[in-house]
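Hi again,

Forgot to attach this to my earlier email, sorry! This is the prediction with alpha-D-ribofuranose bound. I've pasted everything inline since the attachment limit keeps bouncing my files.
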Amino acid sequence: MLTSRLVVVVGSVNVDYVMKLGHRPAPGETVSDGVLEMHPGGKGANQAVAAARCGAAVEMVACVGADAAGQTRIADLAGERVGTGHVRRAPDALTGVAFVMLTPDGENAIATAAGANMALAIEDIEGAAALIGKARVLVAQLEVPLAAVARAVQLAGPETLVLLNCAPYVAMPPNMLDSVDVLVANENEAAAMTGARFEGVEGARRAGKLLLSLGPRAAVVTLGPLGAVVVAPEIEQHVPAPKVRVVDTTGAGDAFVGVLAAHLGAGNPLLEAVTIGTAVGSATTEQRGASPVVPESCMAWRAGAAGPD
Ligand code: RIB
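Structure tokens for the complex follow:
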């Protein structure tokens, strides 16, 4: 039997060290005006928190280290009502870390040390097989081993909608995308997957069609401030993003994916879910940090709304 609105996220959990800088250092340059903040992060965890804040029942399948950061991150997720029964503490690895350099234009440059994320094994996924099989939505990204993601996709139940965010881009086995219902890629990831370059909304339409030809049932190409383009057999639609005052773009894509998952899990149509995801993702860029800035009650958001209904 299908568990109503259960979203299972297979993915990464990090601690983000965010350094605010006047400008990003050039090779060989030392920049000394940094201000450091620590935030919860990791694409998987950010997406799980976003979905949970939308009201979905969320379970995460992940690995953190046996260090203090691992314990903290599990507590953070539990505090966000994300189930952590399948978050394993890997004995010999450090919790994943991201170094985020954030400049006044709101843009970032991110380097990650995956640490325990790479310990996520096929056995971990198989240990969560019952959960994955009864999920309404399975969400995965590519900050954990591809073999783990591929196994999770195989274990999706007949009524499970598979949502794959191919971030960061990693070459995938040819048949993997055949089992994906909704593929989410930004312009760079779409370019890496298709071998072509795209620009703007028209480029994203072409990218979406090419991505669709790789196997998924629907493709969503995200365009940052320009919103997103949705391409499916009977849909080709640009969803514009509301105008915002950008402070930090970190995690905006993750908020988008988490909101999308929650709304698809609740049975909302793809276009409506993308529209709300775009609004919430844009809103997150007005604050600093990744997962903590996803607005509460985003299930109630509607396109163009300035806040929860
Ligand atoms: O997408 C943003 C996330 O990417 C950050 O939270 C960081 O941890 C990296 O995984």
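Residues 301-309 have pLDDT under 50 and may be disordered. The longest strand covers residues 57-65.

That should be everything now.

G.
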